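Checklist before submission:
- one chain only
- standard amino acids only
- sequence pasted in full

Submission:
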Amino acid sequence: MAHVQPAPPRQRPFLALGLRVIAVGVLSTLVMLVKFTAESGVAFAEILFWRQVPTVALILGWLALRGQVHRLKTNRPMIHMRRAVLGLTGMCFTFGAPLLLPLAESTVLGFTTPIFAVLLSAFVLKEQVGPVRWLAVALGFAGVLIITQPGNSHLPPFGAFVGIMAGLMVAIIAVQVRDLARTDESLSIVFWFALFSAPILALVLPFAYTPHSPLQWALLLGCGLLGCLGQILLTASLRFGQVASVIVMDYTALAWATLYGWLLWDELPPAATWLGAPAIIAAGAVIAWREHQLFRRGQPPAASGAD
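Returned file contents:
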């Protein structure tokens, strides 16, 4: 009997947008929790370790209860290992930036991911990129310069570097995940990333571990649960809506970061951030819109010079 491919999930754009907004809120809370936990005295490497371990247990346990552990099967373990190394590096930058910068500034610098995605398409993948996206890239980097103000900034230079690298690493990882998604389920990709990266982080634990208070253990558990929940919600949003349609909701992270920064650290972004942030957000929105236009025309993203 011929194998019948399951029908793709029905597009439900409003559900997708709602899931994405919730996912951004959850992940913004995770970033805040990582910063708060580190400032309570827990080593950064241990925070990353406990961010990953619950994901392995939760996904494996959930699939075991449903009798669907076979969904984790993969024929590309070495590619997953490479993705884990890249993902672990990206996590260091993504969660390291809020430790070095105010939450709002680190969040805005993370919005540079679509800009770096265009650069990777042009210079690494050798795809043609037209004037619309090049102008968006220029606008985005103008926003970065306004925020960081090289040589005359309220931000520490190393912190600004880490924040920008976070945006670059997410773009690189997105290419890797897109390749893995051709053969493996999203749940499998998340599982193998956590499974391969946790032992690497465990190697550092003997040098980083210190006794924790009940509050610190609760914070570490919260980081793990929020990280797993956020990834599941992100994946679910993409099941019911197109990337270009839901990604604009990611910019709501700035509101969460500003709120948490004000409530917990008495930080409000300076004028430079409010001037630079719209430029970076507009650049990302233009790139997403252009990618959507090309998709509707049946052209691969960043593959046409007609824009």
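Reviewer check: The chain has one domain: 13-296.
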